[in-house]
Amino acid sequence: MNYPYTVGFGKVDEENKPYWNEEAHEYLIITADEDQTCYSRTINGIQSNYWTDRTVLGHIDLTTGERYSGKDAVLWEMTPEEHDTELYKNLFKGGVVYRIRATMQKQNVVLYPIEILGVEDSEPFLEQLYAAYVEERDRPVYLQTKMFGDLLLNKRYNSFDGTFEYMGHKIEFSIDNSDDATKTVSKLEAFVQDFKAHDEKMRRFAAEKLTSLANEWADEEGEAHITEEEFYSLLVPEGIDMRSTGRYIVYYTDGGAFGGHSVEVSGNSKGPTKAQITG
Predict the structure, then answer these.
(1) What gap in Å lies between CA 129 and CA 122, rounded to an integer?
(2) Measured in whole angstroms, how far is the alpha carbon of residue 30 from the centre of its chain?
(3) How many CA atoms does the CB half-sphere of 6 hold within 13 Å?
(4) Number of other residues whose CB lies within 10 A of the CB of residue 115
(5) Would you give per-residue pLDDT tens digits along the chain (279 residues)?
(6) Residue 173 Cα distances to 153, 166, 191, 236, 279, angstroms
(7) What is the side-by-side strand order in the sheet with 142-145?
């Protein structure tokens, strides 16, 4: 990329100007390695331009000399070209020290980049922040459980994932780390301990709720109807999503009753509450 490069429209739009400082400073920044997304707003039926942001691990204000070692962000409104070509994903690469001209948000440590002036070969203060970030990012995190052993945190999805065996089938589960993971695994272990009874109850519930719909599909495909008992027998559990509140979703293969779609049965401590076709 050729520098200097004007980021987005090169200025804060009039509507958002009150939230940003007027004076732009020069900064050195270093960013995290992460997927970058974008978003837009629709106001009175009119869609705005897309915005995007990227995590900054620290910065040096070259105008004042101030150093900041906490996480902040660069945030800007993209041009249609930056969005359509996905150029925005490559403007700030993780671990690279960039010299930018930007304005600071008044209430938060957030930078609105106006221009990327270039790339620095080295900056020890920022490179140390990146090294600490990489060490933390790559350090394995485990959740100790009685039934499933030590579960490794999937940091991409912030979840502890695992499997257990049930009647010759491998059942997958995922525990959301943003929920109370310790409480969730306790609920899951109790659920799995009595899974045979839960499974039978959930399949009966799904068969009662969905057999008529399965037969409507059969009519459309010119196939034979099935009974509730047959539908019950077709369902095979394949996954569980458990919450710390005890609410759950169990995912079943449909055995071909819905052309290979999944059946989800939701419930709580009192039993199943909803069955639906997904996928």
Answers:
(1) 13
(2) 23
(3) 7
(4) 17
(5) 899 999 999 999 888 899 999 999 999 999 999 888 888 877 677 777 899 999 999 999 999 999 999 999 999 999 999 999 999 999 999 999 999 999 999 999 999 999 999 999 999 999 999 999 999 999 999 999 999 999 999 988 899 999 999 999 999 999 999 889 999 999 999 999 999 999 999 999 999 999 898 888 778 877 888 899 998 999 999 999 999 999 999 999 877 666 677 899 999 989 999 999 886
(6) 13, 13, 12, 15, 18
(7) 142-145, 149-154, 159-166, 169-176, 236-242, 248-253, 262-268, 271-278
Going by the DSSP 8-state scheme, the letter that residue 56 receives in this structure is E
Answering whether pTM is above 0.70, one says: no
Distance CA 259, CA 256 (A): 5
Residue 121 main-chain phi, psi, to 5 deg: -70, -35
**Amino acid letter for position 82:** E
Q: How do 169-176 and 72-77 pair as beta strands?
A: unpaired
* C-beta separation of 213 from 228 below 8 A: no
* Furthest C-alpha separation in the chain: 77
CA nearest neighbour of 264 among 210, 215, 228, 212? 210
How far apart, in whole angstroms, are the C-alpha atoms of residue 98 and residue 79? 20
Q: Is 57 helix (H, G, I), strand (E, B) or coil?
A: strand
